[in-house]
Design brief:
Layout: E1 12-16, E2 21-25, H1 31-49, H2 61-77, H3 81-88, E3 90-94, E4 97-102, H4 105-114, E5 121-124, H5 130-145
Antiparallel strand pairs: 1-2, 3-4, 3-5
Helix pairs in contact: 1-2, 2-3, 2-5
Length: about 180
């Protein structure tokens, strides 16, 4: 018996039509490379922000910013260089004008703190809603792991709870006594 296995050779493309943007991801990422990057992202987020990404309710703004930064860095490791540079680019902005750009939030913050007047702030060059970043994360899970979320450092915790509003498998009370025709 003979079986042929295909490898992707063309980059994966994430389209973001509202921005007229395409982010290009590596055609193939070996499983151990993906798992290493994923585990590093989770550990870095937990260590630097003190936030468990599975429980964001108790986090403050600065902690959540570190989670977002970690997610962007993780995604950049899976992207082609041009897209990677775009998703991690941080501008130092003052009065609507970009003063300087960096590839790290911390470097941008340090520069902004040194600007006279105190009005300079770091800002992501590519502004994306957090939900879009999370959708990109989920998409990479599908692309590079076959849809199974990598286990966490706790030895494979339970999967996420069902999304609100999703339909269960039990019978609906509203349909418990269906009328029959002809009676």
């Amino acid at each position: 018996m003979r079986k042929t296995f295909a490898l992707n050779t063309e980059p994966h493309v994430a389209e973001i039509p509202g921005l007229g943007l395409e982010l290009q991801f590596l055609a193939e990422v070996m499983g151990d490379e993906y798992l290493d990057a994923y585990a590093e992202m989770r550990e870095t987020q937990k260590r630097e922000s003190g936030v468990d990404v599975e429980d964001l309710d108790a986090a403050d703004v600065e902690q959540l910013r570190k989670v977002t930064t970690g997610l962007r860095v993780f995604l950049s490791r899976l992207m082609l260089p041009e897209s990677a540079a775009l998703i991690t680019r941080v501008d130092v902005v003052e009065a609507g004008k970009t003063l300087k750009s960096f590839q790290s939030w911390e470097e941008a913050r340090e520069h902004a703190d040194g600007v006279e007047g105190g009005g300079a702030k770091p800002a992501w060059n590519l502004r994306l809603p957090d939900r879009t970043l999370l959708q990109l994360l989920d998409w990479t899970v599908e692309l590079y792991t076959g849809g199974r979320r990598p286990p966490t450092s706790s030895g494979g915790s339970a999967g996420p709870s069902p999304k609100a509003g999703t339909r269960g498998t039990g019978a609906s009370r509203s349909r418990g006594s269906a009328r029959t025709t002809g009676r």
